[in-house]
Amino acid sequence: MIHVIAIITAKPGLRAQVLEAFQANVPAVLAEEGCIAYEATIDAAGLPPSRGSVGDDTFVVIERWASVAALQAHAAAPHMAAYGAKVKDWTASRTIHVLEAV
């Protein structure tokens, strides 16, 4: 199984727009062969900011894929290209960690 942690930082004040586009794309991603989990997360409410907080402009996508091949197909999917084009001007940075269990 492949785990992906994607850290997406929107340009200031645009996280809600990026998240709206992300959520609109979720059904297509979940329908992909080999997709086990795909969800956006933000800092938990009710806790004070800490060194590990992502902040108001960032969200973290937690993904699980059945295989590297499934992840590669996901990256090449037309709906992902459309999503990327839509949020390109709203996004400040994106860091993707691809991991596997030991």
TrEMBL record:
Transmembrane segments: none annotated. Gene3D superfamilies: 3.30.70.100. InterPro entries: ABM_dom, AI-2_Isomerase_LsrG, Dimeric_a/b-barrel. GO terms for cellular component: cytosol. The keyword Oxidoreductase applies. Residues 2-99 form the ABM domain. Keywords: Monooxygenase, Oxidoreductase. GO terms for molecular function: monooxygenase activity. PROSITE patterns: ABM (PS51725). This is Antibiotic biosynthesis monooxygenase. It comes from Variovorax guangxiensis.
